[in-house]
Write a structure and sequence with these properties.
This protein has 10 helices and 16 strands. By secondary structure, the chain is an alpha+beta fold. It folds into 2 domains: about 300 residues, Transferase(Phosphotransferase) domain 1 (Transferase(Phosphotransferase), domain 1); about 100 residues, Immunoglobulin-like (Sandwich), CATH 2.60.40.10. A hairpin with a 5-residue loop joins strand 3 and strand 4. The relative contact order is 0.12.
């Protein structure tokens, strides 16, 4: 039975419908003309009051995350009940998603390795914020990663599968899913670029062993191995434009069995209905401490460049139906500032309390310029120390191949920082050729007294 043109709680169902593990989705348009989606949950999944209450708690947690400034989730407009059915209404579309873009379509270019890296970094950022709040996504896969009209990645269905199945949040499941997604994109979107594919594979392996923050930073520090313009999502924007042009004349729907739409008088929002009960507070409180995702230098550079490019994009390119209201952008900026202040405050409290787990350095990476350096230059060598996130003192030394005496240094690390960057500046002058090797060695703390070091080599040519 077609529902095209039917209304549910102010949303007009229009266009395509499709089914997944949770129920049946329909593209929709809100009362003010903005595109969104409507999900009718499979009634077999909501069989008792406890399941419905867990679902309400998950949606309330999402809304509180959004109010705190998190912008990486598909925003929830409402959760309603109508004639014993439960519907979820979103204020942004959940399609196209990564699964849609993985399918080869005539006339539509494939995303590239830069698109994959952009999406993976943004997913990691969102997951880190979710995990810091004591929550998890629970069902991360290509079908739950929506691509917004500006090319950014938004996570859909956060917490819904866990709520319906009665599972506790499991951040480690999200990390495993992120690593699997990275490997999948390496084998598809990066297949034609071996260097980029290797970078994505390395990030996946890092996530499995060290976690999301080092995995994200692996992509950020390896951005020279990715196509130009990937931070601004040029490729993704072009793909979305082509898809919009293709779908503009007609909306082809996929048939799905849908019920007769209820009268508006039968609809009750679960987010304000006292009969739905108050969601458990422990599921929605924002918690801060050693798991707070503090930005590394690499992440700050990424965000600064990305945001600068966003402000320079033409308004017509942001959304097929026109640019978003200025008020929404102002609210987003204000909310982001508030979230940043909350994170800083929470981190300060944790630091004041102190950590009972001693600092441990688990890995060292050294990165040197790959291109030959020209006459009379100062070469900048980057070192990255991966840690367990505890506060403490780290002692290390740089060794240059042109001198015997090492350069010893000591840094103080704060709690929550699992990736610490150090640098070495090496000045080379005069004519001729030279190959220099920089070795970074950790003196303390060391895992079980083992040697922990890495090195990188650069070339200098001046004639």
């Amino acid at each position: 039975m077609s529902t095209d043109g039917a209304n549910i709680a102010g949303f007009r169902l229009a266009g395509r419908t499709w089914a997944d593990d949770l129920g049946t989705w329909s593209s929709a348009v809100s009362a003010d003309g903005r595109p969104g989606t409507a999900l009718r949950f499979d009634p077999r999944l909501i069989t008792d009051r406890a399941t419905r209450d867990r679902l309400v708690a998950a949606v309330v947690a999402d809304r509180r995350l959004a109010q705190s400034g998190l912008t990486g989730l598909v925003p929830i407009a409402d959760l309603i009940t109508a004639q014993d059915e439960v519907w979820l209404l979103t204020a942004e579309p959940v399609s196209p998603n990564v699964a849609d873009l993985l399918a080869d379509e005539p006339g539509i270019p494939r995303p590239d390795a830069g698109s994959a890296a952009t999406i993976l970094v943004e997913i990691a950022q969102t997951l880190l914020a979710i995990h810091a709040a004591g929550l998890a996504h629970g069902a991360l896969h290509p079908g739950t990663v929506a691509i917004a009209p500006d090319g950014s990645a938004l996570l859909a269905e956060r917490g819904l599968a866990d709520a319906l199945l009665g599972r506790p949040p499991a951040p480690e499941r999200d990390v495993t899913a992120w690593a699997s997604l990275a490997r999948g994109l390496a084998a598809s979107w990066a297949a034609a670029d071996p260097r980029s594919a290797a970078l994505l594979e390395r990030a996946a392996a890092t996530a499995s062993t060290l976690g999301l923050t080092p995995a994200r930073d692996t992509l950020l520090l390896g951005r020279d191995q990715l196509p130009p313009g990937f931070v601004t999502r040029d490729r993704l924007m072009e793909i979305l434009r082509r898809r919009a042009e293709r779908d503009m004349p007609t909306q082809v729907g996929q048939p799905a069995r849908m019920p007769v739409m209820p009268d508006e008088g039968d609809i009750v929002t679960l987010l304000k209905d006292p009969r739905a009960g108050e969601p458990p507070t422990e599921d929605v409180i924002m918690r801060f401490g050693p798991g707070v995702p503090v930005d590394t230098t690499a992440a700050q550079i990424w965000r600064a460049g990305r945001d600068q490019q966003r402000t320079e994009l033409p308004a017509a390119g942001l959304r097929s139906g026109g640019a978003p209201p200025r008020q929404r952008r102002a609210r987003t900026i204000l909310a982001s500032v508030i979230l940043a202040l909350m994170i800083v405050a929470g981190l300060a409290i944790w630091l004041f309390r102190g950590s009972s787990v001693p600092l441990a350095v688990t890995k060292v990476d050294v990165i040197a310029p790959k291109a030959a350096q020209k006459c009379d230059t100062t070469v900048k060598i980057l070192g990255v120390l991966s840690t367990n996130g505890s506060a403490g003192e780290v002692r290390y030394q740089w060794k240059r191949s042109d001198r015997k005496a090492p350069i010893s240094q000591t840094d103080q690390l704060v709690a929550g920082e699992t990736s610490h960057e150090v640098s070495l500046e090496w000045t080379v002058k005069g004519e001729g050729s030279f190959k220099g090797t920089a070795t970074l060695q950790v003196i303390s703390p060391l895992p079980d007294g083992k040697k922990l070091q890495d090195k990188a080599t650069f070339t200098y040519k001046c004639s």
